[in-house]
Structures are given as C-alpha cells and as structure tokens.
Amino acid sequence: MKAEKKKKIIKTIKIDVDKCNGCRACELICSAFHAAPKYSSNNPARARIRLIRDPLKDVYVPVYAGDYAPAECAGRDKYTIDGKEYDECAFCRASCPSRDEFKEPDSGLPLKCDMCEGEEEPLCVKWCLADALTLEEREEEAEEEEEQEELEIGLESLANKYGLQKILDTVARMSKSKKD
Ligand code: SF4
Ligand code: SF4
C-alpha cells in the first residue's frame, strides 16, 4: 500500500537540569492524572516521570518514561556527575526487565509518558514552578503506514512478554474504574 504523507505535531519537553530543585511536583501530578479514577490518588511509583536525586550535591535530574523494551540491553551507560557515580541504567527511559522503574505497581505493565493525552499542556510542565520543564512543538511530515507498523510491533512485544490475557484484563479493569 502506498504510504501517504500527513502532518504531525512533535512535542518535546526540554529539561533544564540546573533549574530543577527536586520538589517532585511533576511526579505527584503525573501519578494523580493517571490514577483511576483521575486524581483519586497520587503515588509517584505510578508516575511517567521520575526524579534521580542526590540532595547533598544538589543534583536533580527528571527522567521521562520512554518506550517499552522487551529484553535487557547488552551495553550499559555509567554517569559521573559532580564526582558522584550513578547506577548503570539510572538515566535510562525504558521500561525493561532489568529493573522496576516505569512499571505499573499492581499489574507490572510498562508505563510510558503520553504527554497527558487530552490536556492542552503536559501537567508536569504546568506544575513545575521552577521552569525546569518547558514544552516545544514542531510540525513534521510522517508516513501513515510507518506509524501503524510501530503500534503493531509495540503490542506484539507487550503480548509476548506479559501475555495477551493479562493486558486485556488490565485494560478491562482500567476502563471499568474510569466508568465508576
Ligand atoms: S516539578 Fe520541576 S523543579 Fe520540581 S522536581 Fe519536577 S522538574 Fe524538578
Ligand atoms: S507529560 Fe504528562 S504523562 Fe508525561 S510525564 Fe509529564 S505529567 Fe506524566
């Protein structure tokens, strides 16, 4: 099938690590927005953003949940900032089998930032009073076929890892809570 070009908006959240003061408001509002029902609880473990902190050195780095990775990667990164060496994988955005970060605590399903779908502005950006997070938008041309393919690959690897029934059960539970 011939792919058609269409316009899409690419949203980017710029992170200014020097401005972040470690208040964790971004984690709180993100978890509250994604609670079911919405705003019924705020558990940072459910947030799609998390803060890597070293208060003694005044280092705070917000990291957004990115794509789901079905397998651990073979190569790792190790960062040293202001003399402190951080764990391997500390700044990685993936929800992957090697660690618990960016996984829904009850179901273990992967979490990914959805830019607060349905909201005019991402809530973490709105709630960051230190202006450490700012939204940028640009328009790009995209192939419709490619987008569909990416979605299919994502669902297939999720089903391989967690089992289709578990995913269906979770979706059913979430839509039931939203209706309650
Ligand atoms: S809300 Fe802003 S200042 Fe507070 S932890 Fe998040 S990024 Fe940092
Ligand atoms: S943009 Fe929305 S979903 Fe993404 S981390 Fe911020 S509050 Fe969470």
Keywords:
180 residues; alpha+beta; two-stranded antiparallel ribbon; two-stranded antiparallel sheet; 6 strands; 21% strand; binds iron/sulfur cluster
What does this structure look like?
- The model has no long low-confidence stretch (mean pLDDT 85).
- The protein is α+β, with helices and mostly antiparallel strands.
- The chain has four helices and six strands; from the N terminus they run βαββββαβαα.
- Strand 2 and strand 3 form a beta hairpin.
- The protein has a two-stranded antiparallel sheet. A two-stranded antiparallel ribbon has the order 2-3. The chain has a two-stranded antiparallel ribbon with strand order 4-5.
- Helix 3 crosses helix 4.
- The longest helix is centred in the last third of the chain and has 19 residues.
- The site of one iron/sulfur cluster (SF4) has 13 residues, from helix 1 and helix 2.
